[in-house]
């Protein structure tokens, strides 16, 4: 950790259905944090640049079919392969803002309702191996609105009916875990301000020594 950067970084996760504004908002948050002198980085999952990530990318592009349990495990492996780097960033005082994390893994797999792949299975796969976010910002928007946004339909899963199921799974997880639910139908700037105010408090609490928990232990 450099000067003026004592204490650990915060681990901030954005979740929500496809095209709900996570990428826009998470990037804006990183820019705002940096402007306030907070050492912050933007990350996303899946990380399509690794070997595992390339397999995931070809699955999402529809170039390759994969069993539901196998693709779930690949998404989890993609997070696990970045765990050491993630932990050393946080411990070194860097705030990491993530566009999707294990909550996406659980929501998308549960939405498929594949026998045997329930929430307990999803949580068991990676829950005790990864750090828990300090906060999850859940961007809520009607799936119809998201479907009208640019690029919707380009990838696997970007189908209205499936997104409705994903939304239901997200709602259940959010209630269970106490995520910060945000109205993603408001303007980009209004939503950004709301997130910024909250995120600064989270950053301060982490700096002051709030411990890093396990994800789902
Ligand atoms: N996705 C993402 C999953 O199904 N499981 C996961 O664990 C993660 C991280 O990948 N439709 C899905 C959700 C998205 C897709 O995400 C790619 P993005 O943010 O559009 O690149």
From TrEMBL:
One of its GO terms (cellular component) is mitochondrion. The keyword Hydrolase does not apply. Keywords: ATP-binding, Kinase, Nucleotide biosynthesis, Nucleotide-binding, Signal, Transferase. Residues 14-195 form the Thymidylate kinase-like domain. Its EC number is 2.7.4.9. GO terms for molecular function: ATP binding; dTMP kinase activity; nucleoside diphosphate kinase activity. It comes from the Eukaryota. GO terms for biological process: dTDP biosynthetic process; dTTP biosynthetic process; dUDP biosynthetic process. Pathway: Pyrimidine metabolism; dTTP biosynthesis. Belongs to the thymidylate kinase family. This is Thymidylate kinase. It comes from Ostreobium quekettii. The chain holds residues 55 to 271 of 307 of the full protein.
């Amino acid at each position: 950790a450099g000067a003026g950067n004592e204490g650990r970084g915060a681990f901030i996760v954005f979740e929500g259905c496809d095209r709900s504004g996570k990428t826009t908002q998470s990037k804006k948050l990183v820019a705002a944090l940096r402007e306030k002198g907070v050492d912050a980085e933007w990350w996303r999952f899946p990380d399509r640049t690794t070997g595992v990530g390339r397999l995931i990318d070809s699955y999402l592009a529809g170039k390759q079919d994969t069993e539901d349990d196998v693709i779930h495990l690949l998404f989890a492996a993609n997070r696990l392969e970045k765990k050491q780097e993630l932990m050393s960033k946080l411990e070194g005082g860097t705030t990491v803002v993530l566009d999707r994390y294990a909550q996406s893994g659980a929501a998308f797999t549960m939405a498929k309702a594949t026998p045997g792949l329930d929430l307990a299975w999803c949580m068991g796969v990676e829950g005790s191996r990864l750090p828990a976010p300090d906060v999850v910002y859940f961007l809520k928007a009607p799936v119809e609105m998201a479907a009208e946004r640019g690029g919707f339909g380009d990838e696997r899963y970007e189908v209205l009916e499936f997104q409705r199921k994903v939304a239901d799974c997200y709602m259940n997880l959010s209630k269970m875990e106490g995520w910060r639910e945000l109205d993603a139908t408001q303007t980009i700037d209004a939503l950004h301000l709301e997130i910024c105010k909250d995120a600064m408090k989270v950053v301060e609490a982490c700096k002051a020594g709030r411990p890093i928990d396990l994800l789902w232990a």
